[in-house]
Structures are given as structure tokens and as C-alpha cells.
Amino acid sequence: MSETVTIATPVAPQGPVVPKPALQSPRRRFRTLVVCIVLAVIGGLAYWGFTRFKQWNARKNDQIPVAKVEKRDVSFTIVAKGDLRGANPETLIAPATGGNELHVTYLAKNGQQVKPGDVIAKFDTSEQEYKLKEANADVAEADQRIIQAKANRDAQAEEDKYALIKAKNDLLLTELEIRKNPLLPAITAKQNELALASAQERLKQVEQNLANRALTTDAGIAKEEAGKAKAASQAKTAQENIDAMTLKAKHAGYVSIKQNTNINFGYDGMQLPVIQVGDAVRPGMAIAEIPDLNNWELGAVVGEADRGHIKVGDPVAIHVIALPGHTFRGHIKDLGGTTGNFWERHFECKASLDESSPELRPGMSTEVVIATETMRGALSIPAQALFDSNGPSFVYLRSGKAFMRKDVKLIRKNETRAVISGLTEGQVVALVNPLEKPAETKNDSSAMRAAPK
Fold it and tell me: How far apart are CA 361 and CA 296, in angstroms?
């Protein structure tokens, strides 16, 4: 019987069995990536917010200029540009000569100093000189016709006188003949009676014709004299027009040439040029002014929105650009009508100077500061502390160690102060936006210079 022998193979010792890692699906990997990105963004925002908060607090504590809300008197002014002119100027007008236009042949220079009697402007007199010559010729012709009419009247008067004498003599002879009727045959006596009646009728007719001819002759002479008077009047008018077409100064001063309002083409909405030699102007149009240099005024253009704040008599401070360092005092004299396009409505106000100076000249440019009113004890802040982002006005109000936005109501504002409501006296507001990054400037930054001392 055979036996089966089993040989045991030695087995090496083994450690703990580690399972193979399972492969992640693509969807799980995508979720993991999204979570990582979100956590990174949140961390970045947190870091930025912390850094911003530190910068804001650092600026709040060290760099933000502030001011207190105060109750004080606030004066309001309006600043406008103007030009100097003499008050009560002598205006030289183009004469009304019956034509449509006048042509300038001579014109004094703008700003020229003149004396009384100096010629300022001349116009073309050719048409009026022609009318004067025609009228003088008509006068001479009328004189000749009058002389002829009077000569004819005198000659006719002699003929009529002779006819009257003859008619009277014929009547006298007939009357003498009729006295013989008692001695004459009846038929002859009847003839004498008829001759007497005829002589009487002839004398009556001669007398009537004489009276009618005298009236007719006198009427003809009167007609010729009326024609002469008409021609003489036309000659006088033409001469007066010629004289009027030379404009002379009545008092001393400086000439200010006016704009030519007779031209409109190409200057719609633009400033018109001044009148020049050769220009055509309308009768009655202002050509030049000679201001009264003892009294000065100026015209300033002011926006329509400011009209309600200006009234006659308001004081003004006038700075003449050509005379720096000197301020002239004056007051509002007159307020003109509103003009201009609908997007830029404005009006002209006139101001009188309360003082004068020999250095002033017409046309000098000026800056006018009009003091309109003063609000007493008004709650106000510096103008730069008021903000407006296309909506309600607001300020940055200090609250603890930070600033918060606070809406306020603007009542009125000038260049330096803003009168508001919605705050209380003593509260502190920022003069700059605390959320903006501070500019890297020197110690005398614009924000610090803007802060009130």
C-alpha cells in the first residue's frame, strides 16, 4: 500500500492588507473645485474688507477734515460779467430820410475822444443832393411861371379896362341918342331903345367878364405860388436831410460804436459786429453813443434763475479788470427783460457806480458781485461738506469714530456756505468723501486747505 506524502511550503509573514484607493468621479472633482474657489473668494473679500476698514479708520482718525454745523449769518452774492458804459449817454441816430437804407461814408473810431461839434458819422448824401437840385429847379421854374402869369394878368387888365371904357362910352352915346326919340319917327325911336338895351347888356357883360377874369388870373397865380412853395419845402427838406446825415457830438466824451443790427444772416445766436464804413443801416438805428463820463453805469448778464434774488437798489461791488486792486461801489439801477434760447435764458441788469475815476473808460470789462440778501442765524455748513449724486443732497455725519451718510435739505447755497435743514447745531460733518482713497499729497493738501481755520 502506498502512502501520499505532503510537503508544506513555508509562507513568508505578511503585514496588514491596504485596500487600493477608489478613483473619484469627474462630478465630485468639479464640486470640490467650486468649493475651493468660493472659499478663496470669500477669503479675499474678507481680507479686502479688513484692509479697507483699517484704511478708512486710519483716514477717519488722521486725514479727514471736518467742520461743525453752525448757526450764523450767511450772505448771498451773485457774480456776473459786465461792461462799463457812461450813464445817460448821448445816442446818435441814423436820420429818417424817407429811404430804406443809409450807407456810412465816415465813422469815428471806437473809443475816440471827441469834443462838442466833432463829426462822429456821415452818410451818403447823393440821393438827397439830387432831390435838392430838382427842388431848386422847380422853385426857379415856378418863379418864372408866376412872373409870366402876373404879366398876362396886367396885360389882360389893360384890355379889360379899355373894353370897359368903350362899353361905358357906347352906353353914354346911346342914352344921348334916345333923348331924340320924341322928335324921331317911331321906328327910329324903337331902334334907339333897342340900342340902349344892347349897350347896357354889353356893359354888364364886360363888367362880369372883368370880375371873372380877375378871379381866374388870381387863381392861376396862387396855383403857381403854391407849386413854388411846395418845391421850396422839398428843397428845405432835402437840405435838412443832408445836414442831418452828418452826426456831430453835443458834448465831450468817448465814442462807443454800436452793433450793426441791420445784418442777421450768418450771425444767428452770435454777437453782431460793430458798424463800419460802407455798412448799410436803417433810418432810426443807433449808430454810436457818447456816454456821460461824470456818471457811470454797467450792464451785466445774469442767469434767469437768479432774477428772483435781485432787486433794484441791491448793493454791488465792481472790479474793473483793467484796474486791479480797486473796488468800486454801486447799486442795481434797472432789471431788463429775459432773453436768450430756452436752454440758456438770461437777462441784463444795469448798475450805477456811486464813485468815479478818471481812469475809467467805456467798454472796460468788469466783474460784478451783487449782494442779494443775508440770512440771519441760519443753520449752515461749509459748501464743500454738501454732496449731491444726482439725487437728494447729503453729508457725511460723524457717528462715534466713523462717518455715515445723512440726507439733508438744501435751502440756499453760496460759494462758501450752504444753508440746510435736517441737522442740529454742533454736529460734525466731513469736508471730503471719507470713502474715497486719500490723495498722496503733502501736508498742505487741497482738502486741508479747504477746511476752515
Answer: 9
Q: Quote the DSSP letter at residue 438.
A: P
- pTM of the predicted model as reported, rounded to 2 decimal places: 0.47
CB 48 within 8 A of CB 40: no
Q: CA 445 to CA 199: how far, in whole Å? A: 131
Rounded to 5 degrees, φ, ψ at 18 are -100, 125
The helix or strand, by DSSP H or E, that contains position 186, with its residue range, turns out to be helix 186-244
Cell numbers for 37, please give them.
474657489
Counts for the chain of helices (H) and strands (E), in that order = 4, 20
What's the N-to-C CA distance of the chain in angstroms? Answer: 128
Render pLDDT for 241-271 as a digit per residue (tens, 0 to 9): 899 899 999 888 888 888 888 876 555 556 7
Q: Copy the grid coordinates of residue 301.
A: 448778464
**Residue 401 is placed in which grid cell?**
469714530
User: What pLDDT, in 10s, does the model give residues 273-305?
Assistant: 889 998 899 888 999 988 777 778 888 888 777
Contact 330, 351 (CB under 8 A): yes
Could you say which architecture CATH assigns to the domain 65-74+375-450? Beta Barrel (2.40)
Size (the chain), residues: 453
Cβ atoms of residues 93 and 286 within 8 Å: yes
